[in-house]
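seq/struct pair 1
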Amino acid sequence: MAEPRWGGLEALLRSRLPKGELDPALCAVLEAASPGLALLDPSDRLMAWNPELARICGPTLPLRPGMAMAGLIAPDMRDAAAAALDAGRRVEAALASAGSPQVQIERRRLRENGALLRVAPVATAEQNAQNAAAARLQAVGALAGGIAHDFNNLLTAISGSAEAALARDPDCDAAPELRQVMESAGRGAALVRQLLAFARQQALNPRVVELNAAVSAMAGLLQRLLGSRIRLAVDLEEPGRRVRIDPTQLDQVIMNLALNARDAMPDGGALRIATRHAVVLQPEPLQQEELPPGRYAVLEVSDSGAGIPADILPRIFDPFFTTKREQGGSGLGLATVHGIVRQSGGFIAAESRLGEGTTFRIWLPRHEGAADAIPAASPAAAPVPPVSLPQPKPAMPSAAPVLLVEDEAPLLKLAERALRRAGFDVLSAASAEDALDLLEQGGPKPMALVSDVVMPGMDGLALASRLRERDPDLPVLLVSGYAEVALGRDLEAERLKLLPKPYGLADLVAELRSILPRTHAEVS
């Protein structure tokens, strides 16, 4: 094993600890260090430590000034560890905290000023395999997210063209075929949402919900879907816990797991959905991930099916992996569940034994505040909404234009046509740089910006920031196939509205009107 690079840190410690005193620069080094580090006095007692060491030791082994170094090590290993450290060797040992991982401990003397203690978990072969699998899933997720973004652009162009054609003549001979195009685009959009869910980039609308209430609301629907040969049992722990998640996506998670269980019990059986709570004190391995310490609400879905073979279990959350290819399985059901749970800040794992069934267990961070009010159902949730493009309205001669920026030429034309049909003047550009050039060459000041987010060169977020330098109150509508969390920005705090792709042309007009001042919304 290669020697750790102590040199610069050791020199700093020796120069900053002439009398065993702590120094702000030294504390900053400890805070930033990735392994667990502690400063020891000449008697090998703790003087200071970094957050990583406290995390490794966990809440059952609280650190305190003056604590003996030996107190960190499991009692049955202290003598052997002390002998190795006194000889200047690195040693592997267990910590004194219950259930702690095996760690590697090293101590470096700092002349007469004490010592520096380094503690780092030992990566096992199983952990290395889990890390490799997690990295593989992350890479596939990034690829899926990129494909989904491009596919969203195509679907928006396809559905928008069909929508515009139907709006011009709803009773034309091609109307049935155009409606079929829109329905197919809707199914394609559902597939894209699954890809984005796996990639953790779908647009979510999280709210604080009562987990028990959400499960109870799904129970009646599930019983009808499962059929008479499967017995459904719901076991809800009281008092119930609250979590912050998109309620629609939570329903999808429960539905996907229930249907997966149904398929595992073709001859009938039992399905149990339960809730409970958990307080995790130490990091716990979960198949390919690690469950960090915290307070969780737990959702369990268990079936009495045939179980999952051990060689297949590690792959069940992989996208496009399915054992039901002949039955039309897409391999995205469990990948979607995994993506939704992880994007919501939770964790999921499965345990199974052949002949005994399977249990999926989901940990969601508990929310201590009150649950949010349930909003009224939105008609926009229909799979294929009716075509209702706004009728043409005369534009005001003095009205400022909408600045429309989209790098996909078909989408730019469709959006421009829809906005003009709704009565807006439009100044269109194929890139953020072109939009800025138009304004710098004397173009009229826009009343609003409608821009794609992901574009070659400057993106839509940067363009909005540049335009807000000139007009801080400029209304901005961004369109993207990525979720807000994937963009890495708090759009609401920045007064930016996001319209997910694929979108309907009527939705584009409605969202634009919703962000305009009342006077502009009324005249357009």
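seq/struct pair 2
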Amino acid sequence: MHATQPSFRPIQPLSDQLISQIAAGEVVERPSAVVKELLENALDAGATQITVRLEQGGVKRIAITDNGRGITPDQMPLALARHATSKIASLTELENVATLGFRGEALASIASVAQLTLTSRTADAEHAWEIVGNPQSQVVPSAGAVGTTIDVQDLYFNTPARRKFLKTEQTEFGHCAEVVRRIALSRPDVAFSLTHNGKTVDHWTVNDIAKRSAQVLGNEFSGARLPIDEQAGPLHLHGFIGLPTASKARADAQYFYVNGRFVRDKLLTHAVRSAYQDVLHGDRYPSYVISLDLDPSLVDVNVHPSKIEVRFRDSRAVHQFVFHAVQRALAQTSATAHGAAPAPTPAPSSVLPWLREQQQTSLGMQFNSGSSNQGVAQSTENYGNFFAAATASPATPSYTNCGLASAAAAPLQSMPDDEEYPLGFAIAQLHGIFVLAQNRKGLALIDMHAAHERILYEQLKNALDSDAMQVQPLLIPVTFYADEVDVGTASENQEILRSLGFDITALSPTTLAVRAVPVLLKNADAQSLARDVLRDVREFGGSRVLLERRNEMLGTLACHTAVRANRILTIPEMNALLRQMEATERSDQCNHGRPTWVQLSLSDLDKLFQRGQ
């Protein structure tokens, strides 16, 4: 059926009620949007304690009470008026907005599609005051403590078509609860209480971000997280990022805040995701609670109706800062991060005599006493050992295919003090898969394939990073249609494209030709690769596509090259693996985000055997 065409009518101004209802379509898309707007108003009012009461998923009732500054009775009608606010008064203040709300349309929009009652009391008032419905209503005396209560009932009572689009009560409540969690994580200095249908669901007292994030996200996150606190000029990034082992199948534990405002910004999400690419391949999503603080004049928050997206004045600088800050934090996930000693250099002089005495190799890579402390840095000549033909039997004590050299085991008592070596020293191999090591804390259990895979991956990556990008010219250039934006991007960024290993030139105003691609990606679809690289160059000023795909390919190579299961290793070879793990960044996880080792403390072992009980 076709909708009935409206009859011709002259242009005329809309009524205030209809204008507010149209605005409500953007601001009040569901009950959770009402909760968000009211919570932001409470925080802007300086509240330190907020109570959220919901009925029937917020459709029947949303009541939010705070202990903020309150509103004087003469200001209460203005609070319900459209585009009336105390937060900004000029364009300069809009460009430097430091509050969560600033448009002055939330309460008017909510009141146009629900029954709204506003009750408020200031610290110097003898009693509270109340106004119902709209700015034309009379303000009357009421009862109440200092602060404000906004009671919203029967959402969409006068717009039944909108109400039909709402989901079930449990679904709508879930969205409301998620909004409360988001805001509670951003303000651990504020106490929050959430009730639904008369039952308390969540209650968070005033705390620091470490304890608040543990309360909101649970023990799984709090037990596998890393602190992050980095500053560069006007940018300050702080919070917690989850270890790859705390990754999830969905992106439902990602909380990013800009000046205290929760955002889902593509640029910031891409920066964090790119930082995890070294330790989290596949369809897993990292967990994090991160806050970015910067001068309000450097970010525009007035670009989305629900203010969930932002625009940075220098988006490339912000992207790079976030990417490198998270990447540096993840680089600390090595065995040494769990010990009392700092990360050892690739060739600690104290251990060299012992290494020579044991004739110990380092799983194909000799320690270099002249190296600086940069992980396991090796010359490219040594990598030939990785690709040697594998012909030895798994039970044969000849491991040239892995670059291993057999050596006699030495008694444990001849080894150096393990306080310098967090992973301790090997004592046995279990089923040809795990290495058992005794360390200061108790027993370390190492997955030898996963650990060696990470070591090889980091070594291959470092070797490639130190060389110029090798280019594969195409025998027949790949041509494809491109719009003016892509053609302009290719023409203006030739130097960047060449540094990434691409030769993309314009044949006409609507045609691009790919003449060369990086050798590592020579088997990829050149047209798709070119479009992706041009898009990223345009958005970020450099491409992460090459890095992501390169890292995945290096991960595959390292996986196939690493020491395999059922390989019998000698004690010195196991110890060599442990030493390399301690000297390798991100050695806590393999290339796929799985743990490479676990620690069983003496107290854990005592519990297993019920000792001391």
